[in-house]
Every structure is written in C-alpha cells, then in structure tokens.
Amino acid sequence: MKRDVLSRLIRAVILGGLSFFRLAAPALAADNPPVTDVLPSGVPLPFPSTAPDSTPQGWDTTLLGDPSGVRSRLRAHGVRLHLQDVEELWGIASGGLSRGATYNGATIATLNLDTAPLSGWHDGLFNISAIQLRGRSATADRVGAINTLSGYDASGRNTRLFELWYGQGFWNNRLDIRLGEIDPDTEFLVSDNASLFLNADFGWPGVPSANLYGGGPSWPMSVPGIRARIIPTYPVSILVGVMDDNPTGGPFFSGQSVLDMNPSGTRFSFATGVLAMAEVDLSVDAAAFIDAPTGALPGVWKLGGFYDSGAFPDRRYDTQGHLLAASDSNGQPLMHHGNWMVYGIVDQTFWNPDGDAPKAASIFTRVMGTGGKQNSLSFGIQAGFTFHGIVPWRSDDVLGLAWGMSNSGNRAWNFNQDSLREGGDGILPLQAEHHVEVTWQAPVWNGINVQPDFQYIHHVGGGILNTSTGRRVGDAAVFGLNMTTSF
Description:
mainly beta, Porin, 16-stranded antiparallel β-barrel, 18 strands, 14% helix, globular, OprB_sf, OprB_Porin, porin activity
C-alpha cells in the first residue's frame, strides 16, 4: 500500500513537471514579476492552472487599458509602468478596544525597464516601485490584535521607496538573480491562495513579524540584498536570498513605529545582522496522484526557513540571570546571537470538475515554528479554502474561508507567569490569538476588484487588558471593504 502511494506521488511529480515543461514559454527578462507582487493582501487570485505565467500581462485587465496604443509602444521599447490603488474601510461591530469605523489606503507605482529592447542586453530587468500610504490603523486604534486586519494597515502615513533592484537571467532564466533593495515577502514564505485574504497574517505572518528587527523585511519595508531563483528541473524551483535583517536601522525595542524610523525607505543599515533565507518549491498535478477523471489539480508544496545572525533579547532573563519580571532585575534582557525559523506550505487544488474555468476549489496550509528563548511567538499556522466560480452568475468571483493562530514562545509565556506572580499592573494570563476570515473577491470592471470581508478575532492581543474598562479586551467582530484598482 505504501509503495503504491509513493509510486503515485512520484508519478504526480513527474507528470506535473513534464506538463510544466511542455507548457513553459521562453522566459522573459529576469523573470518579469507580476504587478501583483507589490500587493501584500487581497491579491486578485487567478484560476488555478498548471501553465506557468510567463507571458507579459495584458492591458485588458486594467481600468485605462491601452489608450491610443501608448502602453504598447512603450512596452515595445522595454518600458512598463503600472499604477495601483487600494481603498479600505473597516468597522468594528463588537469587542476590541472601541467600536467605530476607520479608513486606510495605498497607491503603488511600479516601473519595469527591459534591457533587451533598450540596449540589446538580453534577460535583464530594472525594477523600481514606490508607495504612498494614508489613513489610520484600525488594528492599533480600535482592535489591539497581534495580527493587523490588513496588509495595508501600516500604522502610518507617508510616501516611500519600496523596491529598487536589477535582475539578470542566465540559461534561459533557469537562473535568475536580483540585486538591490528587495522585499523578500513578495517571493519567500508566500501561499498564493492565502494572499487572497486581507488579514496580514496570511501575507507576511505574525511569527517572523513579531520576532525580527522592525517586523522583518516585509511590505512596505525593504532591505538591501541579493536573491537567486534556480530551476534545476522544471517541477522544482529553489529560492535563496541574503539580505540585511533590519529594515528600520533601529534597535529591537523602540517606542517609534517602523515607518517613523525609516520614513522614506532609503535608510540602509547593516548594523544588526544578516538574514539568510532559502526555500524549495515543488509543482505537482494531484490529478495524476489520485487518478482523477477531471481536469488538472495543480498544487505547489514548499519547504523553507531562515537564519538571522543578529542579537536577540531573551524573553525571560536579564544579563545577570535574574527574571526580567522580578524586582531585582536590571531590566536589560540577556542577548542571544542568531535566530531561526522553519516553515512548510501547501497550496493545492482539490476540485476542478470542468478541467478549466470557471469552477475550482483549493486548500492552503502554512505552518511555521522557531525557538522559544528569544521569540515572543514560537508557532504559527494558517489554513483555509478558496472557491472559484461557485457564486451563480458570477463566474470570476472568488470566495474564501480561512483561520490562523499565533502561539507564544515558552519563555514569553513564563515571563507572563512571572509578571502575574510579581503582581504587575495590567497583567492578565497569556492566551493564543485566533482569527477567522470570510472574504468575497468580486471583479466589477476591468481592473477593479471589490472585496467585502468579515473577521473575528478570538483572544485579542493574546488576552490583553482594556485600560478604559478594566477588563480583558473582548473578541472582536470586524467588517471590512477593500477596493483594488489597477490603472
């Protein structure tokens, strides 16, 4: 029985790889990134397919299209300019810190320059993008959750550089290298199906965000670094990256927001450590594995991790070996050199009755774990379903249901218990925060997606105290509306 299962798995991998190889078109300059790479959440989710997206994105999916052929002429000369806008409204219906409505938004501009038509140098790509952020943080002002309600909930307002890199492809882009100011969370640690959801935990998760300097190099922050994508054989893709570990350039603990510490996105610091990331991606057609009579069931399985060479504070002990919560503590945490995290991701279509659009259903799971000495969160998991074309008369709509949770590290939990014994003010027993999200992504016009959203946060902030009421913050019920426009 085990041999039969193993043989089917190997067959699925081989057939998926052969399908990928047959369908793969010649690669573009330095693996042209999708324009949705700059979106941290609520990403338009394409219908699942075994065919790689290796062709230029057309203008028929944008609001303005190709006026008078200007964009086509620019593309012929290697120039692509994209403009995207996101508007969000959030209403806290119950629980949290306070009820009420909050607005936030972002505008993102991206310029790609293909070196082949510009200079004759093949497989080179120059990329620069900038972000304008506005509005207020519903999470910080009204909820108090560990994971923000949206990837665009950046707790600040400014205009900043996002990415600035040059990419070069080799051997028909079987090797693709990018060098410059990069944002690793557009490629590493990504679940494509999870990117549909708005809660930031489904993008760059809460575990690395809580444990790395400045939340780690993630949207809207970026860091100097180099990354390489290697395709040794077409079912397999390997990502490796080495970069600065601190997008703010500031200390681990700071009273300032990350945007205030690096307001323009041009502060480059190498003072704390180096972050090395690696990930192996495997493309699989599960239809071959289960001998399904229907169409292809594409999936991507990933295994990865990172190591940060910086110094990280102990979550329970000070430099003298005393408890940080004790009255005789010097208040200076013991520092540990190095930090790490491992993760696994499964994105898998399991229902595709027609073999093509419009109906399909997929599942995703992402699990991550790390050490407990120097990390406030040591374990996280997200899982959910996405459904294409099941809304009557709305074949392009996507429905999603997902859940996520973050759990404390052992020393962070013990610190909480120490604080309770010491009688610290405003301290309550620590609990794991859970969030459930139901979302509906609906294209309403070329380039315009509207996405109603509902989230329920259980054990907000791990069970924090609401100082205005003197009681634990209640579970929050939140309604949201996201509108994403691609011009």
